Amino acid sequence: MENVLIAGAGPTGLALALWLTKFGIQVRIVDKSAGPGETSRAMVVQARTLELYRQLGLAGPVVAAAHLNPALNLWTRGQHRARVDLADAGAGLTPYPFIAVYPQDQHERLLIEHLAAMGVNVERNTELMAFGESKDGVAVRLKLPDGSEQAVTVAYLAGCDGARSTVRHQLGTGFEGGTYQQVFYVADVEADGLAPADELHVALDSGDFALLLPYGKEGRKRLIGTVRDERAEKADTLTFDDVRQDAIGRLGLQVHRVHWFSTYRVHHRVAEAFRRGRIFLLGDAAHIHSPAGGQGMNTGILDANNLAWKLADVIHARAPARLLDSYALERQAFARRLVATTDRVFTLATSEGHIADFIKTHILPTFVSLASSLDEARGFLFRTVSQTMLHYRDSPLSEGRAGEVHGGDRLPWVRGAAGDNFGPLDSGAWQVHVYGTATEALTAWCERHRLPLHVLAWTPAHHEAGFARDALYLLRPDGYVALADPQGAVEALERYFRSQGCVWAQPVA
Predict the structure, then answer these.
(1) Closest CA to 141 of 163, 161, 117, 166
(2) Which of 41, 292, 308, 361 would bridge 342 by S-S if both were Cys, CB 3.0 to 4.6 A apart?
C-alpha cells in the first residue's frame, strides 16, 4: 500500500510531494490536466517560503530566476503619492529580505523538474473519481488517461486540487465565505512608460484598482485590475482592448503586446475542516482569498510543509496519529486570520463611493508616505506579507519561553561569520539549538538519544534576536520552536517528549 496519494499538481501538491519524498515517504501525485499551467495569477514567492525551500535546494534557483523588487509605488488619480522601499525592510530578519516575483507557471515547472529528479513523476490526465475511508487506509478510484479506472488503497489522501476541489466536495465539508462583486482581469503584457520600470506599482482611482508587477526580460509585466460598469456582465467574452481603466490611463502606461488575458472573480472562503480522518485539504482546496499581499500560493506551500513532516513522523512510527490533529489546528487558524486581513485590505482598495474615494486618495497615501519613512513601519509591513511573523504559540506542540522566544515562534534568524543559524534546519530534522554553552548533561543526553544538538557561540546578535544565553530550543522540522527552556535542562526535553507521546529522540541500543 502506498503511503500518500496527492490529488492536484499545482504548487501546493508538488511541494507536498517534494517534502514527503525528502522525508522518505512514498507518494503518488495525480492531476487531471494534460500538463502544467501556461498562465498564472500567483506571482510572488515570499521570504518564509524561500526559507523552507532551502530544505529542498530550491531557494537558490527561485531567487536566481526571480525578479527582485526593491520598492512599491502608490499612485492615486495619476499622481505618484508614496514609495515604500522594501530593499532593506527585511534586513537582519531573513536570508531573503526582498519580494521575489516569479510567475506560477515557471514556478510549477521548476518544482516538477526537481520532483522528477527525486524519482517521482506527475501522472497527467489522471482524475480522482471517488474515495472511501476505512480504519486502515483510503480506497481510491482513479480514471486513467485511456479512460479505464483503477482502484488503489493508500494510507492517506491529500486534496491539493484547487478551489473546485473534488476531495472537498466528496467530503461534504463546508466552504464558508463569499465572492467579491467586482470582476477582475489579469494580463501578461510588454509595456513601458511608467518609471521606475523595475518596481511594483499600485494605482487607486474612483472604484478602480490596478497592480503592475515587472518580471523577466523585454519589459514583461503582470497587470491586474478591475473590470468596470456594464462590461463586467460580459466578462467571459472581453479582450484586453475592452478594458479601459482610469487607474491605468492616468499612469501613462503604454502596452505594446498582450501575451495572454483572462477575467475572473475573487472569492474568500475557508473550509469547515482541514482534516477528516486520513484525508486532508491543502492550498486552494482549503482556503481561497483575495490576491492582496501575494499570500495565496505561499500559504498553500506552507500548508504542504506543515503536513509533510507530521505525516512522515506518523508513518515512520516516530509519533502517534494524534500529531496530525495539529495540522488542522495550526493551519486553519492562520487561514481564517489571513482571509479576514486580506478581505479588509482588498475591500478598501476596490470599494466605490465618496467616502471610499476620500480614504484611498487622501488618507491612505498620507499614511503610506509617513510609514515609508519609518524603519519600524516598513519592517512590520515586510514581516506581515513575508509570513515571517507567523507563529503557532497556541498549538498543543508549543511549550515554554526563553528570552523573547516562545514555543511556537519561528526560529529567529541570525547571521554569523561562519554562516547562519538556519543552516542546520536544511536537514528537516528535529534538533536542539543552544546559543552559548550547553550543559554536559544535555550534550550527553542528545548524543545518547541521537537528537542533533547545535551549539552556537554567543554573540550580541543573539541577544538582539531575542534568544536567552545557554537556553534550550527544541526545533521542529519546519524551523518553529517546539520547546523553549531557559535553564537548558534535560528534564524539560524528557517531559516534552513524554507529554507528546513521541519518540523523536531515539536511544542508542
Answers:
(1) 166
(2) 292
Integer Cα distance of 106 and 27 in angstroms: 23
Q: Using one digit for the tens of pLDDT, what is the confidence trace for 188-233? A: 999 888 888 888 898 887 666 788 888 876 778 888 888 876 666 7
How far is it, in rounded angstroms, from Cα 446 to Cα 444?
A: 6
Write down the residue that cell numbers 552559548 correspond to: 436
CA distance linking residue 285 with residue 157, whole number of Å: 13
Question: How far apart are alpha carbons 71 and 243 in whole angstroms?
Answer: 27
Asked whether the predicted pLDDT for residue 415 surpasses 90, the reply is yes
Domains and CATH numbers, the chain: 2-58+101-176+268-349 (3.50.50.60), 399-500 (3.40.30.120)
Give the type of residue at 125: N
Q: Label each residue of 230-258 as H, E or C.
A: HHHHHHHHCCHHHCCCHHHHCCCCEEEEE
Grid coordinates belonging to 101: 516575483
Opening angle at CA 47, ends 42 and 52, nearest 5: 100
All three cell numbers of 15: 511541494
- Distance (Å) of CA 141 to CA 10, 42, 145, 151: 21, 31, 13, 5
Q: Cell numbers 487607474 correspond to what residue? A: 247
pLDDT greater than 60 at residue 284: yes
The cell numbers describing 132, all together, are 472511501
More confident residue, 341 or 436: 436
